[in-house]
Amino acid sequence: MKNNKAIAQGYMTVGEVAKKMDVTVRTLQYYDREGLLSPSSLSEGGRRLYTDKDIVKLHQILSLKHLGFSLDDIKNRLMPLDTPNEIADILAEQAQAVQKEITSLSESLRELEALRAEVLQMQSVDFKKYADIIVNLQMKNDYYWLIKHFDDQTLDYIRSHFDKDSGKAFMDTFVQLQDEAIRLHNANIPADGDEGQRFAKAYWDMITQFTGGDMGMLPKLIELGQFEAADRKWKEKQSLANVYVEQALGVYFSRMSINPFEEGKE
């Protein structure tokens, strides 16, 4: 009670301000140390004392902080400004920063929901695959879901031979060639003709890039369209493309006098 009597009329202690403004005493002490909001006075005992004017300034600080401004921004960029236009410009900058954060959070939400769906479909806990899925989601790879179908050997091979850019480029090439195979098939382009064989060479070049000369990896690439639990549309598309791919490659291998499938078995 003696301490309360010692407080002059019109002043509030740090505890009273903290309670009134729903902040902690430690927060007010920090604002004081940072020179953002210093008490108007000190009691004889060294207690911080605040006035209604200080409350108004604290309200301003808390409101701007709610909008995402840092304490440094409030102190050094906002408070010194003199004109509405200057303040409006700073608010516009902050609005852009908030929009970027919203976009980033929306992407994180999309990735979380997609990963959750993949986790539920997988038959075991595998954080290495989770990490690969997340990376492919970040890359905007629509075929991230294929990862759960690969075995550890194949994934280790992919991790050691491809980085983000080359992995995405390879997948884009694979999808483009599958689309081209369907186009050629639907257009009745002969697999043994010039156009069909140009396609076969491009397809074989892609396979060679993936295998790096290791024909033992060839069956893994073929599995891309044969996963039992793969998306139905994906399987249908790959089955249709593979009809033309097999015809074109069959002619190509015959003319080259090679049998890579036999090499892969060895």
From TrEMBL:
PROSITE patterns: HTH_MERR_2. The keyword Transferase does not apply. The keyword Acyltransferase does not apply. It comes from the Bacteria. Keywords: Coiled coil, DNA-binding. Residues 11-81 form the HTH merR-type domain. Residues 88-125 form a coiled coil. GO terms for molecular function: DNA binding; DNA-binding transcription factor activity. This is MerR family transcriptional regulator. It comes from Candidatus Ruthenibacterium merdavium.
